[in-house]
Amino acid sequence: MVVELKITVELQMVLLPLQINKMKNTVLLWGLVILLFVVTGCVSSSAKIAGGEIEVFHIDSPGAEDLLKLSDYYESATVVPLETSADCLLSEIKKVEVDGDLIYLKDNKGESVYCFDFQGNLKKKIGHRGDGPEDFVELTSFTLDKENGLVYVYSRANDKIVVYRVNGDFVESFPSPGYYAVEIEYVDNRLFLSGINSGVGLLYNLISLDSSHKVEGMYMPSAEFGVSRHPMLKKVKDDLYFYPPLYEDTIYVVRDGKFEAGFLADCGKHTMPKEFREQANDGRVIWPTIGIDMIKNGYILLKNLAVFDRLVFLRFDYRGQPRYGFYDKDQKTFVCTYDLKDDVSYLALNSQHLWQTDDQVISTFDPNKLDHYNSLYSDPDYLKRMHLSQQQADEALKLIRGLLDKTSEDANPILIFYKVKK
Q1: Is residue 248 within 8 Å of 197, Cβ to Cβ?
Q2: Cα torsion through 386, 391, 392, 396, rounded to 10
């Protein structure tokens, strides 16, 4: 049975330009209450919305010049240089998942799902391009069903999903439901697909399939003339966090079969007005003008996040520049910075490409930058400016020079796994 989005309609009166004809009086009442909270800046750290609770990130100082240390949030880092060989030449990594002691990933070329151990050794490749029932034309995205040992590969080019066992054996293939997706995740015995808010196929930003591959849920209608932006899906235990490509202030979560608001970014005067958001999400509007206005007006744009038991790591843009924030669920506090001092892995955390396990943030590092970091940690002025001790510098140099011995100019990317403090 198809289930359309019917929850948190009160919240969407403020955040979503949806046309709702039913329950008009109730929606209007709650919409006015929430709007008053947002305008006056009186949203509490755990705001009541539509009878439920939503945690709020108060991003009131996006221009903060404080430099935060990763060691305040991450206790350790595991650096994994990926094997480079004639059979394993990767481009930009687009997705990473971990199952036990194995790392699964796809790169920009999308030829196979690659599987490595934590020493960076290639263990196997799953699936390949082709026209047969066991093949795919394009590896758009993949996801793991860890409980049953399955790998789902979605191919947008031929509207197809191919299923393999983790050992690489073919299981089955089936057509996707006429839906132009760019990302998939397997969570809580359901396969979720997310599109790009365009008028192609099923006009929803997120759908779910049941065990028989039939459409079970359709969430958040997409626009007929929507623009093409990549959604964010994050699998966290049995929850799925979802941020649609709509320049919203709300991050949603699918939990226990319910689609609801998970976090709200209270950006105060940096909040994008509803009318401007509608223009920005209209594919018929000329983009350069919109982008310039976003920067000039200082609107905050949410980009990425990682969610853990206590900590939420947030990446957002402010005046065209990246910013980083940490939300403490226990203390109900949010702090942000223009940059992060990486005194854990001694390499830069690439927050543009960000994945996670239950207790780790996963980032990538370009091996071509190792020589640059080798020079930095040999520079006394840099150590003084970054408040790094000589012992930390020696540890950094030892790590980097060891990596330089294993890599070359044509080496595959390096993965870094940051373990979150409890």
Answers
A1: no
A2: 120
| Spatial separation of the C-alpha atoms in residues 378 and 176, rounded to whole Å | 53
The DSSP secondary structure of 40-75, one letter per residue, reads HT---TEEEETTEEEEEEE---TT--PEEEGGGTEE
pLDDT tens-place string over residues 312-326: 999 999 999 999 999
Residue-wise DSSP of 139-161: --EEEEETTTTEEEEEETTTTEE
| Residue 243: its H or E element | strand 239-243
* Closest-CA residue to 204 (of 184, 223, 191): 223
Token pair for 49: 């919305």
Between CA 326 and CA 227 the distance in angstroms is: 29
Q: What tokens appear for 131 in the block?
A: 């026209």
pLDDT: which is higher, 120 or 37: 120
Q: Six-digit token pair at 316?
A: 């957002």
Which amino acid does the sequence have at 83? Answer: E
Task: Return d(Cα 114, Cα 104) in angstroms, integer.
Answer: 6
pTM, whole model, 2 decimals?
0.85
Convert the pLDDT of each residue in 358-381 to its tens digit.
999 999 999 999 999 999 999 999
Is the confidence at residue 2, as pLDDT, over 70?
Answer: no
- The b-or-e profile of 108-147 (16+ CB within 10 A means b, else e) is eebbbbbbbeeebebeeebbeeeeeeebbeebbbbbbbee
What 3-state DSSP class applies to 358?
A: coil
Among the listed residues 110, 58, 40, 396, the one whose alpha carbon sits nearest the alpha carbon of residue 249: 58
Residue 11 has pLDDT above 80, yes or no: no
Average pLDDT over residues 211-238: 87
Q: Give me the amino acid identity at 2.
A: V
